[in-house]
Structure formats: C-alpha cells, structure tokens
C-alpha cells in the first residue's frame, strides 16, 4: 500500500515518525513524507522521500507571528483573558475548565496553532498530492489536521501519530461534553467551524475524525497516557536522533557516574529559545561528584563564563548513544528527550517550561517514581536542582522505576510489529475505489 506521512516542519515531530516510516518501507510499502519546505533536508537525510507542501513555516520568524495570532484570537472573546493563558491546553483543574475557558481555548488554539500550521496553501497542496498519488493511508502529526482533510478528500484511511500526550483528544472530549450541555444556539465550536469550511472547499464535510483521526497511534507508555475514549493503537518508542556521529570519548565507559544535561530541540526550534537559565543549570551541576555532559550550542553558552571542571560541552551528541552511559538526565521535559530517557531506563530531573504538554508529563514522570522536578514557581535555585539530581543518583528507587518503564516500553509492539495492524485498519477504513 501507499502511505503518506504528514508532519509539522520541526525535526522533533518528524523524528517520532521515522521508525514507523522505516518499518512500513522495509515491509515493502511505498512511503512519502509531506511537510513544509523547511524540513525537506531532514526528511531526505533520514532516507525517506520528501514532498514539500505550502509555504515555509519559518520557525525562526514565527514566535512574534504566533504572539500576534494569540492576541488577535483572544480579542474576539467578550471578556478576553491573557492570550497565553488560553494556550494552556494541558489545563485539567475542574475549577478552571469553565465553558468560557474551553470556548476561549479552542478559539485561540484554532487560530494561532491549528489554522496556522495547516494554512490554506498547505492544505491545497496536500489535497492535490493525495488526489494525484492516491495513498491508501495518511498518518498525520496531531498539529497538522490538514492531513486528515487531504485523506478525506482522496478516500484514504487516516490516523494521528502523537507527538506527546494526547492533550488535543482529552480537551476535545471535554469541550464536546460542555457544548452538548448547552442550548443549541450557544454551541459555538471554532475548531469544527474552521475544519468544516476547509473540508467543504474540497467537496467533503466535517466529522470528528478530522480532529482526532480514525484511530490514534501513540508511543507514550500506557501507564503515562491521559485517559480518553478514542480508539488508539500503541507503538514502541524507538529513538531517532537524525544524522549523527558517535564521538570518540563516548566509545569508552565513563570513569565515574555520568549526568546528561540537555535542553532539547523543541524549544530551540519551535519557540525560539530556552526558558531555563543555562548559567544556573551549570552552577547547579558543577558541584556534583559526577561527569556532566552538556549538549549546548554556542548561543546557549554565550552568557556562561568559566565552565565547571566536571562539565564536558558538546553541541550535539545523539541521545540514543549517550544515554546508555548515563546515570541521570536533566532536561526541559520535551517529548523526544523524555521518551529517550524512558527507553533507556535513565532517571530524570525535569526543569519544565510552558511548551505544550511539558508540565503534565513532568508530573507523570515524577508520579511514576522515575524522576523529579523542582517545586513551586519562580527562578530555579541551584541548590534545589543539585539536591534533586543527587536524589535520583543516590536513591535506588528512581533507577528501579525507570527500569520498570523501560520494560513497559519494550513490551509494547515495535513499529515492525505494528505494520500488519495498520494494514488491517487501512483496509477497513479507506474509501478509495
């Protein structure tokens, strides 16, 4: 069969798709990857065929654009709160989940995120591609709902492949329940409205699977995923770090315990910077009786003076090669980094930022006993972070619980084992004549 992957032009989102794309290709299926032109080099470097769609996403220019979209969308509300507050799709406190908050959330998210990433020109190109190439299955990034529209317009089966916790699915279930409890004239649904008129441009109508897929492929361990009633198919997370070379110093076992410090790619690429203070992080770790490998680039090190003696800096090291030698990792909580740590059974200290699902994932990791996070708001205190790292290094329970989650991941069907499942689901759902 022919399989089209649709991904946001951000390498961490694409990296999650690569192992499944490889598995399908190795099983004899035709595979293509569609994304904004920004990602073409990363796709071809992974040995996959790229099809650019729409205009450049231009992440380096998008932070200010995103802020303006947030504010403009919030202005449409009767009593607009802070636009950034309405981006908190991870909000799950019952006292906050009022009808007004949920309406505002989907108003801002639709305009600032979903509609932005699936711009009209992008969806036009996706529909033209699916109608010309005729894929049997479209697997789309949860932020690229244009992939679902293109699948519907061509009769292909389609599924979401999650990057992170299924916050969209959980929030959508809550919003639909909230709408159903209101009089019909008060049921405003900006997400369905946008997807509805988008789909109508290609002669198809809106159904809820344009938001959440005919099914969802989820690499998050079952014990850490939020509950939803949506049909989902688990898949083992297989780390992919892009083209890389294992440095010579990593080929020998460390002389003492090793701690990885990384701020990941998501915040650097998608939102334009780090929220944690690099000097504070290095100060915290400089007094540890451990070797610290810090994967930081020149920009992140610009405000750092003299490095602590126990810190080795490397612009990039493939985590899949580095983590097996580590006793702990300190990071900002991004999906790829956190899942790589879980896949290798490495205890985590998460210094979370406000990007997407990072706070709830940090809470889940802490609740599982496989890691810790700083307590309370405010600036990071070096002494507190140092104490957290010492705890995950010295208390055996964290290594045991990290190993337990690693075993859970290893027991999940691999991408290769998922291929026949996808073949059966595709045969059931596709409408191609």
TrEMBL record:
Transmembrane keyword on record: no
Protein name from the UniProt record: Activator-dependent family glycosyltransferase
Q: Where is the Erythromycin biosynthesis protein CIII-like N-terminal domain?
A: 22-264
What range(s) does the Erythromycin biosynthesis protein CIII-like C-terminal domain occupy? 281-425
Which Pfam families does this one have?
EryCIII-like_C (PF06722), EryCIII-like_N (PF21036)
Q: What keywords are assigned to this protein?
A: Antibiotic biosynthesis, Glycosyltransferase, Transferase
**Which organism is the protein's source?**
Streptomyces roseolus
- Highest taxon of the source? Bacteria
NCBIfam families (alphabetical): glycosyl_450act
Name the family: Belongs to the glycosyltransferase 28 family.
């Amino acid at each position: 069969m022919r399989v089209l992957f649709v991904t946001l032009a951000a390498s961490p989102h694409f990296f999650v798709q690569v192992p499944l794309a490889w598995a399908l290709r190795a099983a004899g299926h035709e595979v293509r990857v569609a994304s904004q032109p920004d990602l073409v080099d990363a796709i071809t470097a992974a040995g996959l065929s790229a099809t650019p769609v729409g205009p450049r996403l231009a992440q380096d220019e998008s932070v200010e654009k995103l802020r303006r979209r947030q504010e403009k969308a919030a202005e449409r509300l009767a009593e607009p709160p802070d636009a950034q507050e309405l981006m908190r799709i991870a909000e799950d406190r019952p006292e906050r989940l009022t009808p007004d908050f949920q309406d505002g959330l989907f108003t801002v998210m639709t305009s600032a995120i979903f509609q932005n990433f699936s711009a009209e020109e992008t969806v036009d190109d996706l529909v033209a591609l699916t109608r010309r190439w005729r894929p049997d299955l479209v697997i789309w990034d949860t932020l690229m709902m244009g992939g679902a529209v293109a699948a519907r317009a061509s009769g292909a089966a389609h599924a979401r492949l999650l990057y992170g916790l299924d916050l969209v699915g959980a929030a959508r279930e809550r919003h639909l329940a909230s709408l159903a409890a209101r009089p019909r004239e008060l049921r405003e649904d900006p997400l369905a409205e946008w997807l509805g008129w988008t789909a109508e441009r290609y002669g198809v109508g809106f159904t809820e699977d344009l938001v959440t897929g005919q099914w969802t492929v989820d690499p998050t361990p079952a014990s850490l995923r939020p509950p939803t009633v949506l049909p989902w198919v688990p898949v083992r997370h297989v780390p992919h770090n892009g083209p890389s070379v294992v440095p010579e110093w990593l080929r020998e076992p460390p002389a003492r315990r090793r701690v990885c410090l990384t701020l990941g790619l998501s915040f650097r690429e998608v939102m334009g910077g780090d929220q944690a203070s690099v000097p504070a992080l290095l100060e915290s770790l400089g007094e540890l009786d451990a070797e610290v490998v810090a994967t930081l680039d020149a920009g992140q090190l610009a405000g750092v003076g003299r490095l602590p003696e126990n810190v080795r800096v490397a612009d990039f090291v493939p985590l899949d090669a580095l983590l097996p030698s580590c006793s702990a990792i300190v990071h900002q909580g991004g999906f790829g980094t956190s899942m790589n740590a879980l896949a290798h059974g490495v205890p985590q200290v998460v210094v979370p930022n406000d990007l997407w699902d990072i706070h709830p994932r940090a809470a889940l990791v802490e609740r599982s006993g496989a890691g810790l996070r700083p307590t309370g708001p405010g600036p990071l205190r070096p002494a507190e972070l140092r104490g957290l790292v010492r705890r995950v290094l010295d208390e055996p329970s964290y290594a045991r619980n990290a190993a337990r989650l690693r075993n859970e991941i290893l027991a999940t069907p691999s991408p290769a084992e998922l291929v026949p499942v996808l073949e059966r689901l595709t045969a059931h759902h596709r409408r191609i004549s």
